[in-house]
Amino acid sequence: MIELRNVSKLFGQTRAVDAISLSVQTGELCVLIGTSGCGKSTTLRMINRLIAHSAGSIRIDGRDIEQIDPQQLRRGIGYAIQNTGLFPHWTVARNIAVVPRLLGWPAARIRRRVEELLHLLDLAPAEFAAKYPSQLSGGQAQRVGVARALAGDPDILLMDEPFGALDPITRESLQNELLRIQAQLRKTIVFVTHDMDEALKLANRIVVMDKGRIVQQDSPQALLAKPANAFVENLLGGQERGLKQAGLLRVATLMQVLTTAAAPLAGPRIKATDNLRQALSLMLWHRCSSLPVVDEQGRQVGVLRLDALLDRPR
Amino acid sequence: MSLPLRSNRVIPLLALLALALLWCLDFVSIQPNRIAPGSGLGLLAALGPVWALLLTGLLLACGLLALWSPRPTYGPILALVWLLLLQLPASLAWSIERHIGADLPYARVGIGAGCWSLLFLLGLLLIELQQRLGLSRVWLLGSAVVLALLLGWLAGQGWLEPLALLREYQSRRSQFAAALSSHLALVGAAVGASLLFGGAIALLLQRYPRAHKGSIGLLSFIQTIPSLALFGLLIAPLSYLSAQFPALQQLNIRGIGWAPALLALIAYSLLPIVRNTCVALQEVEAGVIESARGMGMSPAQVFLQVRLPLAMPLIIEGVRVTSIQAIGLTAVAALIGAGGFGTFIFQGLGQSAMDLIILGALPIIVLALLADGLFSLLGEGFSSGARR
Ligand SMILES: Nc1ncnc2c1ncn2[C@@H]1O[C@H](COP(=O)(O)OP(=O)(O)O)[C@@H](O)[C@H]1O
Ligand SMILES: [Mg+2]
């Protein structure tokens, strides 16, 4: 658990972070969002003491971080940044092995760990272990960046706009990857972004920051339902809010269940695990007011009607 | 007539120029003895019609190959240039064979302007080809080494005996060896010391960036002092010190000799080393340093494992520039009695002995080429994994 209490950071006269209090529960994926320059990165970097805070206290699992040796502290916290920051003169395997080596693991254990992580991030070890960062695509490099952050098996992961420089398709696949890994490993993650769709998709909790202060912190649903002020509303995309909210709900929650599974069928249909935003888009495209819902094997398991979307409780 | 769009014009131009100079200038000159005035021999007279026409044909072929094939095929041109280069020692041996008989035991054969021009232009052609083909710079070095080996072998066989350059060398073997060792010692000590001091200065400037502008300004100012003036300026204070402290005299530290030369060389070498090292250390991407720190590396680990290795190619580039500069400057240091190959150059200038001048200048050029190739190789080795 990470607790920030009345934490401030001054750079000369500028108050980059202004008396914020925040606690991130163990296993939670907390997203810091806000416009550029609002103090997100500064907040993140105070947690691993890359920046010293000017006032307030920061505790990790109850221990004040000022009591912990900064290098020791950082070896226990995964850190991934935009543009990867991979070491260009080391191979992928050596890059991933940085923290385990700093922790003094035996060579055999490091080798096993690197292989395990490459598998976890869907990079074939035989193909990628010996490559240099310059030989990777942006998405592959960022996967290595995430693997490197996970290498020492830290409880906490700090990620500063890790997918910010990627194209939309690659970004989406890495977001899915992160959700899959998080479901598997249950790390405590603080994730910085300026992209609300990314925040809504990933977060257990969204922390909206503006000018160094926390404006609102809530679950994605609660944030959408009750934005605290015009700034948050604007960040949520104003008129697109309805779609964003629909994007958070699974088709399965509103479909009418069929009692017996039917055979696979042709034509427009939607998966039970897809979200309502995708369902709405399909209905608009095919100009229909109901869609058959199918499971992973393509068998029909229910029907989704437009009425159900409109009639759902607030 | 229109040329194909993709044809190369540099190679034909160089080849044509080589051809013109080869035919217009003397290929070799012959003196009956060291005192007597020499007489020049043109290409035809020196090598006879067959060899002369062969050379002409090869050079024309180079130009035409580059010009007329729809896409210049650099491979065959490279082979031709190599052939031209390697025939140079042989052509000298051949002209000696043709013109120097047993009746001229003291005759000396000077290498003529035409021969030098051909060597120089072939060098330019090689550089052009190396760049077109994307070969490593070490490749040029290899060519020079092969040429030198061939020359050495022919000389060993006694075929180049009457070459004036060789005669000058043979009467100065021990001086040559001494010049080589003092030249190398001065350059090595200067580059080594400036790497040490320059590296330390660069590190200090990293820590105190406010001193950066002033220090670089001072070092640049030193760089603008003519070398001869700087050598001269050091004579007075060093003579004074040496007169005051006999211990210094024991070490042979006087107003003239190796001490002022080394000091001046270090002063000149600091700028390229400090500047390159500073730039190299700063240019390392901020994100890389940030993640190194974020992973929990200590400041020393960040420096030794990340910043320094990533800065290495540029630092070595600084050392390369510095050593080439020092090799050249050491020639001038001969004027204040520091030894080195400059001694031959200034002796030769005094005696108007062209071949003695060349005996001093040629090894300097070779040393510079060697340093260039060596440090290029080293730099390439360091950056191969880090290429972005
Ligand atoms: N090292 C620094 N020195 C001075 N000012 C800084 C420094 N780092 C950040 N700032 C300032 O602090 C504010 C917040 O920066 P940052 O946390 O990087 O914002 P972001 O939310 O975009 O990540 C900005 O106004 C920035 O200019
Ligand atoms: Mg930022």
Description of the molecule:
Chain A is α/β, with parallel strands linked by helices and 314 residues long. Chain A folds into 2 domains: 2-245, P-loop containing nucleotide triphosphate hydrolases (Rossmann fold, 3-Layer(aba) Sandwich); 251-310, CBS-domain (Roll), CATH 3.10.580. Chain A has helices at residues 40-47, 70-75, 92-96, 98-102, 107-120, 125-128, 138-150, 168-185, 196-202, 220-225, 230-235, 241-248, 276-286, 306-311, and strands spanning 2-11, 14-24, 29-33, 55-60, 63-64, 77-81, 156-160, 188-193, 205-210, 213-218, 256-262, 270-271, 290-294, 300-305. Chain A has a 6-stranded mixed sheet, sandwiched between helices. A 4-stranded antiparallel sheet of chain A has the order 2-1-4-5, with helices on one face. In chain A, helix 8 (168-185) links the parallel strand 7 and strand 8. By secondary structure, chain B is mainly α. Chain B has 2 domains: 10-170, no CATH class; 173-387, MetI-like (MetI-like fold, Orthogonal Bundle). The radius of gyration of chain B is 25 Å and the shape is flat. Chain B has a 3-stranded antiparallel sheet with strand order 2-1-3. In chain B, helix 1 runs antiparallel to helix 4 (113-133), helix 9 packs across helix 11 (258-283) and helix 13 packs antiparallel against helix 15. Chain B contains 15 helices and 3 strands. The two termini of chain B are 44 Å apart. Helices cover 76% and strands 3% of the residues of chain B. Classes of the chains: A alpha/beta (314), B mainly alpha (388). At the A-B interface, helix 2 and helix 4 of A face helix 12 and helix 13 of B. The site of adenosine-5'-diphosphate has 11 residues of chain A, from strand 2 and helix 1.
